[in-house]
Amino acid sequence: MKQILMAAVILTLGAASASAADLAARPYTKAPPAPIPVGYNWSGFYLGVMGGYGWSDRVNVGGVTTTSSDLQGGFGGGTIGYNWQTPGSIWVWGLEADAAASDISYSQTGLFGIFPVTLEDKIRSFGSVTGRVGVTSGAALFYAKGGYAWADNRFSIAGLGGSFSESKVLSGWTVGAGVEYMFAPNWSLKGEYMYADYGSERYLTAFAPGGLELGATTHTVKGGINYRFNWGGSNF
């Protein structure tokens, strides 16, 4: 019995010793590192296309300003800009210029005596040069912008056996806000609202002393897509 017990103890201790040696020889394996959060870089130059719809807020005719949304229509054009994102920050600063061909217009036909006459006021093109400031949230950039605005406005008269038109470039200011979403490397989609006041100009000065003063303020909503050049770092 003593011999059997001693043999059993020796076998048990030997097995434990072998198991401990096996554990000591087993290499230590670290857990895999946590994934690094994706970063988005908005810095650099970009080009884009955009389009949308616009309508008037107030119209100035002959020095009388009235609320009106009769001046309305679509537009489409392009954008160029530059962003700078503060390193390690959510803040993005930028400059942007855009221009669009436009069909924002209003026409009316009436009688001059017994003759029909059609009047049309049309914003043929418009654009802006603005500063931007925004904050990022993941792949999204929320921004506000404001600056200089211009519009090429044409006033036309047709009837009485002929037609006449006169174009003037109006200058004013604009403010607005939008959101841009980076959906792929170098590519982003945006939606934007802008308010613009173009001031007024005088038309028909060759036909009547002092002419006719015309001007308008407008609202526009637009969507667009931008391509940003990967100069100086990865976009994400």
UniProtKB/TrEMBL annotation:
It is found in: Cell outer membrane. The keyword Membrane applies. Residues 1-20 form the signal peptide. Residues 9-229 form the Outer membrane protein beta-barrel domain. Pfam families: OMP_b-brl. One of its GO terms (cellular component) is cell outer membrane. InterPro entries: Beta-barrel_OMP, OMP-like, OMP/PagP_B-barrel. It comes from the Bacteria. Keywords: Cell outer membrane, Membrane, Signal. Belongs to the Omp25/RopB family. PANTHER family: BLL7405 PROTEIN. This is Porin family protein. It comes from Tardiphaga robiniae.
